[in-house]
Amino acid sequence: MTLDIDIEDWPEGDWEALATRAAQAAAEGEPLLAHPRLSASVLFTSDAEVHALNREWRERDKPTNVLSFPMLEREELADLAPDGPPEMLGDIALAHETCAREAAEKGVTLEAHAAHLIVHGLLHLAGHDHVDSDEQAEAMEALETAILAKLGIADPYGD
């Protein structure tokens, strides 16, 4: 998978390298993300921009930490032929102020929290979800935790 990364309204940092490492780890944990034809965009932006996107596309009038906009269904992703043109998996947008506040509340670095949210967003793009059932949420959290461990990041759901 290749990433198209855009950074606006985030502090100095190597966010591109962080996103690339998070995507590589996610592809190791979720093989559907390892497809070489896939492309995804990652936008590091402000709460105001994520708020506007959330209002426009999800009809939720508030900012959130990460938004994911999948462009393929999980079945389409699973059936993607090895050869052919690039396929857009989807878009992810991270809101700086919310991410920074949550990181401080959790006592983790902004980098670790951003990596977690990128992994979380990519798993959503791969068709994973956590809203329909407790089992679904537990499975997604376990997958996130295993992927983050590959990055040396502690379980974000642990006490």
From TrEMBL:
It comes from the Bacteria. Its cofactor is Zn(2+). GO terms for molecular function: metalloendopeptidase activity; RNA endonuclease activity; zinc ion binding. Pfam families: YbeY (PF02130). Its main location: cytoplasm. InterPro entries: MetalPrtase_cat_dom_sf_prd, YbeY, YbeY_CS. Keywords: Cytoplasm, Endonuclease, Hydrolase, Metal-binding, Nuclease, Ribosome biogenesis, rRNA processing, Zinc. Zn(2+) binds at H120, H124, H130. The keyword Zinc applies. Its EC number is 3.1.-.-. It is found in: Cytoplasm. GO terms for cellular component: cytoplasm. Binds 1 zinc ion. One of its GO terms (biological process) is rRNA processing. Belongs to the endoribonuclease YbeY family. NCBIfam families: rRNA maturation RNase YbeY. Single strand-specific metallo-endoribonuclease involved in late-stage 70S ribosome quality control and in maturation of the 3' terminus of the 16S rRNA. This is Endoribonuclease YbeY. It comes from Erythrobacter neustonensis. The gene is ybeY.
